[in-house]
Amino acid sequence: MLKIYNHYISRFAALLVCMELLLLIAMFYLGINIRFMDWNESSSISFLSLLPQAITFVFVMISSMALMGMYQLDSQLDFKAILFRLMPSMVLGFGLMTLIFYLIPEIYLGRGVLIIIMFLSLFGVLLVRSLLFKWPSMGMLQHRILVLGIGGSANELINQTKNMDYRKSKIVGFVPFYDEERCVPDSVVLPKKDSLMALINQYSVAEIIIATQERRGGNFPIQELLECKMHGIKVTDIAAFFEREQGHIRMDSFHPSWLIYGGGFDQSLLRSSIKRIFDLVASGILLIATLPIMLVTIFCILIEDGFPIFYRQERVGKGGRTFMILKFRSMSKNAEKDKDPQWAMADDPRVTWVGRVIRKLRIDELPQIVNVLENDMSFVGPRPERPYFVDILCTKVPYYNIRHSIKPGITGWAQVRYPYGASVEDTIEKLQYDLYYVKNHSLFLDVIILIHTVEVVILGKGGR
């Protein structure tokens, strides 16, 4: 994994981006030559003269594929799954290129040559991905891991890494430690007859994961781990492993001291200023881009259920301070009159027909741009919750208040990585992603979350 501003990017995904970047450049110039070369005469296309068009094309196509989630691990499946996301990416890329040609006539390419380039790129990307995604089955690029511990944390590691094939990590076995109760299958336990270094050499291990709860006393193999470290073997705490590989902080695997002594949690003036500028710019662009959609939404709500158009509700923000969030009304009038607040649920009978549509497409969240401009919210951050639920969750969920150390957001890491939460259990799962964001938030991560948000909206993921 590559670490960029505290956020981890898969080496495989980085390799894929680089390969497709080169591929798209090659397909661009090949398409130009196919369209304009006179095969009866010796001629060539100037590389430098078309470089602005080539750079624009590659940037647009890589961005379109990213917006369709093609660089996320769950999209790296089979040929059909690749094609399902690649075709809309090509359509989106063609539309954006056409718009750019209209806005910047100096870099215009004919639609005929653009279609040729698109077809070449389509087949090229399909070929590269079909070949590249066969590598794990041949054992190539695998990162081999040895786990110290056989208890509950080690078993959780097995459960969490079942779908990590494309991260190129392979657990070669689990080493018993101390008097831990065994919670992993016998088949994955390695006999501790030799030293850790001997096991590492035997299984070609690159990293050791510490998955034991008890780390005090003379039984902890500190000298053996130090020897491994001196030989270039990476030694990682299980909490850090989950943070790196899964993009969340497991509530059942980390120690409070790990949060205290670990990195992250940047609340500096520079970071706060950059985030505020980003909020204002992103909100302004979104307001202009979605104004027609919001006007249509207002009209539809009026036609179906009349006034009020907007819904104001108290939410908890930074430092526990409450504010009134603004949303398009998606439920029938007085949905919670004389009732305690309720979790949102699938097929909620309180939701209107228009409400179901705007929730699915996340249009109901757009008026929160006003909350961002008023500095009650950020564009990216944890989802703001109601005081009624916050009081309940603070008593049931450890460290829940940590998410209130930064401003809540319209979108966030938990919102794009986990389905809509509608219970205490869901809240615990989402909190693990919120903790990751609070610990590692940066402008780089905010941009990644925005890219994921577009994918969520386009594919209709997670709305209720």
Annotate the secondary structure layout.
Layout: E1 2-4, E2 7-9, H1 11-36, H2 51-67, H3 79-103, H4 111-132, E3 143-148, H5 152-160, E4 169-175, H6 196-203, E5 207-210, H7 222-230, E6 234-237, H8 238-246, H9 256-261, H10 269-305, E7 310-316, E8 322-328, H11 353-360, H12 369-373, E9 378-380, H13 387-396, E10 409-411, H14 413-417, H15 424-440, H16 443-459
Parallel strand pairs: 3-4, 3-5, 5-6, 9-10
Antiparallel strand pairs: 1-2, 7-8
Characterise this structure:
- By secondary structure, this protein is α/β, with parallel strands linked by helices.
- The protein has three domains: 132 residues, no CATH class; 122 residues, Rossmann fold (3-Layer(aba) Sandwich); 185 residues, no CATH class.
- It is 50% helix and 10% strand.
- It has 16 helices and ten strands.
- The chain has a four-stranded parallel beta sheet. A two-stranded antiparallel ribbon has the order 1-2. It has a two-stranded antiparallel ribbon with strand order 7-8.
- The longest helix is centred in the middle third of the chain and has 37 residues.
- Keywords: Membrane, Transferase, Transmembrane, Transmembrane helix.
- It is a multi-pass membrane protein.
- Its main location: membrane.
- GO terms for molecular function: phosphotransferase activity, for other substituted phosphate groups.
- One of its GO terms (cellular component) is membrane.
